[in-house]
């Protein structure tokens, strides 16, 4: 890959050529319908931000069991495929590239947020602490999830495969498997949520088995060069806890994903938001053992920091999160040195246009 590239240098990613190395990070915005169908308003939102080299969508449920939050989108029926087709068409009309982030939330859920007949499942019956928002009854405590049976695990894996197939049908350029931030894949990786003693828990090999199986089977269905994975080593979001095997676990996972030929690995460091930082040692382990593209993520808000980290070889692409919320033309603003607008956190997850599609672009 290009040595000391500019943030604005085009980059190949599998069969794609990205216009620049700026990634729009996946961010939950809760603007889908109550039936988890993408809306025309969402198409407008992503269309406005299509100058990013790559857009990664908000987390999207691959099955009714994977729906954790109110008004997040799904990819498990044809109504959702049709809704997403308006989004991908809008982005592609602007020359953009877009991946769907597939997010099964596992135990991070509440029945009031889920379709009728769905179940809250996790590797082990360990409830999360705290509460979560429901539109019907405001904040509610997390229930104890049901421990997944072998059949449940097989069905969950199949939901990722089917979700990826539907994503391609909906016009996406690829998918990102969400294995970070305490959601289902991460729940298998982490001993705080995985207390199994069978072939899906215990040893490093067994704990990474779910992540590797999902990646392998999704790759077999849509092609590995259209698949990425997001991970969060040492993350503590959603009750995750580091353990003494963490470096070795992410080394083993990185090797397996690299051998599969995945397009990229997307490494989350939420220290800018108050979480513990990801040790540089583990970042180097992942960077050295994964042969595909490495997406840097975590608190990027300035051109200087992003460019410096690219130039030093820390990664190949840089994901910007919250700056994209309030700056639909973020790429132009960074390139031209224009001031950035600050987002309003009170409208991050509320329905409607306010704080979503009403942030203006700068005058050209």
Compile the SSE list and pairings.
Layout: E1 11-13, E2 16-18, E3 22-24, H1 40-48, E4 54-60, H2 78-93, E5 98-102, E6 121-122, E7 131-134, E8 138-141, E9 146-147, H3 150-169, E10 174-179, H4 184-189, H5 204-207, H6 209-222, E11 227-231, H7 246-260, E12 264-268, H8 280-289, E13 293-297, H9 303-311, E14 317-320, H10 322-326, H11 330-336
Parallel strand pairs: 3-4, 3-14, 4-5, 5-10, 6-9, 10-11, 11-12, 12-13, 13-14
Antiparallel strand pairs: 1-2, 7-8
Features:
alpha/beta, 14 strands, single chain, globular, 364 residues, two-stranded antiparallel ribbon, 16% strand, 11 helices
**What structural class results from the helix and strand content?**
alpha/beta
Q: Whole-Å distance between the termini?
A: 32 Å
Indicate the overall shape. globular
Query: Could you state the order of secondary-structure elements as H and E?
Result: EEEHEHEEEEEHEHHHEHEHEHEHH
Number of strands: 14
Instruction: Give the spatial strand order of the biggest sheet.
Output: 3-4-5-10-11-12-13-14
In what range is the share of β-strand residues?
15-25%
Main sheet makeup: 8 strands, parallel, barrel
Would you give an account of this structure?
With 364 residues, the chain is an alpha/beta fold. 32% of the residues lie in helices and 16% in strands. It contains 11 helices and 14 strands. The protein has an 8-stranded parallel beta barrel, surrounded by 4 helices. The longest helix has 20 residues, at 150-169. The model has no long low-confidence stretch (mean pLDDT 95).
Nutshell version of this structure?
The chain contains eleven helices and 14 strands. The protein is an alpha/beta fold and 364 residues long.
């Amino acid at each position: 890959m290009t040595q000391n590239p500019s943030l604005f240098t085009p980059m190949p990613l599998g069969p794609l050529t990205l216009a620049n190395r700026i990634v729009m990070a996946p961010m939950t915005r809760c603007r889908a319908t109550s039936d988890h169908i993408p809306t025309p308003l969402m198409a407008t939102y992503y269309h406005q931000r299509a100058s990013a080299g790559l857009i990664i969508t908000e987390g999207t449920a691959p099955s009714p069991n994977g729906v954790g939050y109110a008004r997040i989108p799904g990819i498990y029926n044809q109504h959702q495929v049709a809704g997403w087709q308006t989004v991908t068409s809008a982005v592609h009309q602007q020359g953009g590239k877009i991946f769907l982030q597939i997010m099964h939330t596992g135990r991070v859920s509440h029945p009031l947020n889920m379709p009728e007949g769905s179940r809250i499942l996790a590797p082990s019956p360990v409830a999360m602490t705290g509460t979560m928002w429901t539109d019907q009854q405001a904040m509610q405590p997390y229930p104890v999830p049901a421990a997944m049976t072998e059949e449940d695990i097989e069905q969950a894996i199949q939901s990722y495969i089917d979700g990826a197939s539907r994503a391609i049908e909906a016009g996406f350029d690829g998918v990102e498997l969400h294995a970070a931030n305490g959601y289902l894949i991460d729940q298998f990786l982490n001993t705080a949520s995985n207390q199994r003693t069978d072939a899906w828990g215990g040893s490093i090999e067994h704990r990474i088995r779910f992540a590797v199986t999902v990646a392998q089977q999704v790759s077999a269905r849509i092609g590995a060069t259209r698949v990425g994975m997001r991970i969060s080593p040492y993350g503590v979001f959603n009750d995750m806890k580091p353990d003494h095997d963490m470096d070795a676990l992410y080394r083993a996972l990185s090797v397996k994903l690299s051998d599969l030929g995945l397009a990229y690995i997307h490494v989350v460091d939420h220290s800018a938001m108050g979480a513990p930082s990801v040790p540089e040692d583990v970042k180097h382990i992942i960077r050295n053992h994964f042969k595909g593209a490495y997406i840097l993520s975590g608190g990027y808000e300035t051109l200087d920091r992003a460019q410096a980290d690219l130039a030093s070889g820390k990664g190949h692409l840089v994901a910007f999160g919250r700056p994209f919320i309030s700056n639909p033309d973020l790429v132009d603003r960074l390139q031209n040195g224009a001031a950035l607008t600050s987002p309003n956190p009170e409208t991050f997850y509320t329905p409607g246009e306010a704080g979503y599609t009403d942030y203006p672009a700068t005058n050209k």
